[in-house]
User: Fold this.
Amino acid sequence: MKYLAFAFLLIPVISFGADLEMALVIKDHQFIPAELKVPAGKKVKLIVSNQDSTPEEFESHQLNREKVIAGNAKATIYVGPLSPGKYTFWGEFHDKTARGVIVAE
Amino acid sequence: MIGSAVIVFRETLEAALLIGIIAAATRGLVGRNFWLAIGIGAGLVGSLIVAGLTEKIGELAEGTGQEIFNATILGIAVLMLGWHNIWMTTHGREMAAQAKSVGREVKTGQREMSALAILIALAVLREGSETALFLYSLAAGGGTSQVSLLSGGLLGLAGGIGVGWALYAGLARIPLRHFFTVTSALILFLAAGLAGQMARFLVQGDVISPLASPLWDSSSLLPMTSVLGNLLHLLAGYEARPSGMQVLFYGLTFIVILLGMRWSRTPTPQAI
Assistant:
């Protein structure tokens, strides 16, 4: 029991840096690229640069993420590690045009 | 117009439900309405300031300032809700039992209400700043006319306030005997849910690790987009795909507040 409790302490609670950086652009209320391939099982540092003058909210229920990105600004969103599959995301403020998917494989 | 109404409704709802529950739970406290108004007013002013500072806040902490900011606000809200619940277990029952003696409690009641005004201000600030940004984004985009944008926003705002009011009115009808049990239970779940959201922001900003992501997936059973899923998310912090850390924060907050309530409960006085 003691050993079990000790083993539990070894689970890293504080995380150190991301494994991988990926870029995503918002332009004319669309995500570029609309399909982003990422390796499965790795934490990804997503750098989203919003090139529109208006703010946008990156949102995804599947990724469990939600973040407002100011106009003409960059933001960092950490996702994963993901198991293989498709994860849709969208721009909450322009959800008709701003749609994308992350494919983990 | 419908688009702006839906989003404004969703943002308003989150703050309105919290205000509805707090307003019900502080029924009978002297100066309650005054403090509620102060909280809402300060929150509205704050939300415009935060909306204007979005870019600055976002740039902090290597692009994860927004997560830290949101997590901090949520952390303060959790502390205040927890403290309120523990305070209520000692003071609430006696106040309800002897409505006349409320005057004696005015001093502690004022302290309690001023703390809750801060809580309400923070809730309004968080949701209000997102709403302001969204409306600005639509207005600047030029796709929709100002009139349709404004009427949609007002419609959404009215809808959100309406649901918050309905919750308040419904809670106010609960007999006194059960009243504090129901409101403390609601606040307990609300606080645990906000703690879970706080963990989500800290994971999103890579401050803490997710432990397991996701711990489970109930999105086919009860999707977040469904009305029930959304309502449970707002009231009790339901997540279809939570990370392990979120569940840990949720559980710990729930247990700590519950224990605090148990320990601070004054023993029932024997019949005289």
User: Anything to note?
Assistant: The beta strands of chain A are 20-27, 30-32, 35-38, 44-50, 56-60, 65-69, 73-79, 85-91, 99-104. Chain A has one domain: 17-104. Residues 17-104 of chain A form a domain with the Immunoglobulin-like fold (CATH 2.60.40.420).
